[in-house]
Design a protein that fits this description.
Layout: E1 8-9, E2 11-13, E3 16-18, E4 22-28, E5 31-41, H1 44-62, H2 66-82, H3 84-95, H4 99-121, E6 126-129, E7 135-143, E8 146-150, H5 158-169, E9 173-177, H6 183-195, E10 203-205, H7 210-219, E11 223-229, H8 232-244, E12 250-254, E13 259-263, H9 269-281, E14 291-297, H10 298-313, H11 333-349, E15 352-355, E16 359-360, E17 368-369, E18 372-377, H12 382-385, E19 392-398, H13 401-409, E20 416-420, H14 424-433, E21 438-441, E22 461-462, H15 472-475, E23 476-484
Parallel strand pairs: 1-5, 8-9, 8-11, 9-10, 11-12, 13-14, 13-20, 14-19, 18-19, 20-21
Antiparallel strand pairs: 2-3, 4-5, 6-7, 7-23, 12-22, 15-18, 16-17
Bound molecules: nicotinamide-adenine-dinucleotide.
Length: about 475
């Protein structure tokens, strides 16, 4: 799709690129002098136009041939995978995760599109015998209608892909608002899908402020479902508005985490240290599944902390696009301020700052920070209870497995959890008793497959799971039809 002048990127409404009433610069967090482009900022009226286009496109798209939906998603999948290096570079440039992580995420988006191309062909139903003579029952699934999608900045292409692909596969139409900080990857994904053959109005992109565009989507009566990923605060606001609306909307909210990684005395030390390093600090700790609470039993505590601190010293923190960088910058100034303020809070609360926690300067002006490790933390401290969303982790010392499990579950969140142990008994018990949507054994808390459900419980998530075949729970509504033969 056309995007105006070379560095200006428009919204996409009803099959056409449309300039916004405003525009905002997309800045590289590794080098704030580098402007990726000017991206449209929609207002309420333009958001309403996008919703009207999605509504008008719904009747035809909802009845479209599944082969057509398959072919469009497959074509888009092939293009994303073929362009993964370039898309990954764009992603790393606007978000700040390393090039390897950016390319990996672009690849993941391509795989997700491919999975849901197949799902378009797999939607069956059931024929059920009635309890009444001569009556037959069919239970089928139908698309929901116009779906609003509101996404965060930390997975600029994978999260949009895992919402858009199932919505399209199941015959819904979409109004998509990406996070303000990372519109580039979202724009590229929408461009690819539209060029793959989507009819006008099926997938609309409205970039802009959450309080304007996001709010307009959430309030609108013609939007029947909202799939949101982001902070707890915004999630709660969306839920309140969506439930108060008439008709009430179906909602799916993926929100914060304060994910525990338990390390037991019998763990393989190298595995445990790698899990902690990756889970706490990779992607600059900006993952909802990051392990920010490292819950470690007494017998291995000192060895674990020493080995982790040693590995942290060797981490290369630099420009996301530079070869060899392991940790890129924090996404922007306000996130950096938040991370550094939590380092202060931890010190004031009495935890010991063993490593990192300071701002770093590199060749280019960017939001660089040394990953921070606290020891002697308790689970009651704010650094152990509140989501920081940066490269900050605390080690909490516990006596034994039983205390580790109790501390692990003592949180308002429940997205992901992990345990490092060589004991089958403890691994099995933890898998069954950890209050999280995803549990990892001898693996980092972050890092999931794309063909199985993703989501949490307690304060982390609300509504049906995302991804894999489970995605249909949100993107379809069930119909029960009775026929007297
Ligand atoms: P955020 O809540 O600030 O923003 C998320 C989205 O909501 C953005 O597109 C934003 O513009 C929009 N928004 C803001 N105000 C709005 C409003 N009033 N109405 C409608 N939309 C509005 O979150 P963020 O800072 O972009 O992302 C970080 C958060 O996302 C973290 O809390 C993290 O844990 C969470 N996250 C969760 C998951 C998960 O699956 N559980 C995955 C990734 C990120």
């Amino acid at each position: 799709m056309s995007h105006g002048s070379s560095s200006e990127f428009h919204n996409f409404i009803n099959g056409a690129a449309v300039a916004g009433p405003g525009a905002a610069a997309n800045i590289n967090p590794s080098n704030t002098k580098d402007v990726i482009g000017l991206f449209a900022q929609a207002d309420k009226a333009q958001t309403h136009e996008a919703i009207a286009a999605a509504k008008a496109a719904f009747p035809a798209w909802s009845r479209s041939n599944p082969q057509l939906r398959h072919d469009i998603l497959k074509k888009a999948s092939d293009e994303v995978i073929a362009r993964k290096d370039e898309l990954g570079r764009l992603l790393s440039r606007e978000e700040g995760k390393t090039l390897a992580e950016g390319i990996g995420e672009a690849m993941r988006a391509g795989q997700i599109l491919g999975f849901f191309a197949g799902e378009a062909l797999r939607l069956g139903g059931e024929a059920v015998p009635s309890v009444r003579p001569g009556v037959g029952i069919e239970v089928t699934r139908e698309p929901l209608g116009v779906i609003g999608m509101i996404t965060p900045w930390n997975f600029p292409i994978a999260i949009p892909a895992w919402k858009i692909a199932p919505a399209l596969a199941h015959g819904n139409t979409i109004v998509f608002k990406p996070a303000d900080l990372v519109p580039g990857s979202a724009w590229a994904l929408v461009d690819i899908l539209n060029r793959a053959g989507l009819p006008a109005g099926v997938l609309n992109l409205v970039m802009g402020r959450g309080s304007v565009v996001g709010q307009a989507i959430t309030e609108h009566k013609d939007v029947l479902g909202i799939s949101f990923t982001g902070s707890v605060k915004t999630g709660r606001m969306i839920a309140a508005t969506a439930i108060a609306a008439s008709p009430m909307k179906k909602i799916q909210l993926e929100m914060g985490g304060k994910n525990p990684l338990v390390v037991l005395d019998d763990a393989d030390l190298a595995v445990a240290v790698d899990c902690a390093l990756n889970g706490a600090f990779f992607s600059t700790g900006q993952r909802c599944t990051a392990s920010s609470r490292l819950i470690v039993t007494e017998g291995i505590h000192d060895r674990f902390v020493a080995a982790l601190a040693e590995k942290m010293k060797a981490l290369v923190i630099d420009d996301a696009l530079k070869a060899g960088t392991q940790i890129g910058p924090v996404v922007d100034q306000s996130q950096l301020d938040q991370d550094l303020s939590y380092v202060d809070i931890g010190v004031k609360e009495g935890a010991r700052l063993l490593a990192g926690g300071e701002r770093l300067n590199r060749e280019t002006p960017g939001f660089y920070m040394a990953p921070a490790l606290f020891t002697e933390a308790t689970n009651q401290m704010r650094i152990s209870r509140e989501e920081i969303f940066g490269p900050v982790a605390s080690v909490i010392r516990v006596r034994d497995y039983e205390e580790a499990l109790a501390v692990s579950n003592d949180t308002e969140f429940g997205l992901s959890s992990g345990i490092c142990t060589t004991s089958l008994k403890h691994a099995t018990h933890y898998k069954r008793n950890s209050e999280a949507g995803m549990v990892m054994v001898n693996l980092p808390t972050a890092g999931v497959d794309y063909h199985v459900p993703f989501g949490g419980r307690k304060g982390s998530s609300y509504g049906p799971r995302e991804q894999g075949a489970y995605a249909k729970e949100f993107y379809t509504t069930v119909k029960t039809a009775y026929t007297l033969a």
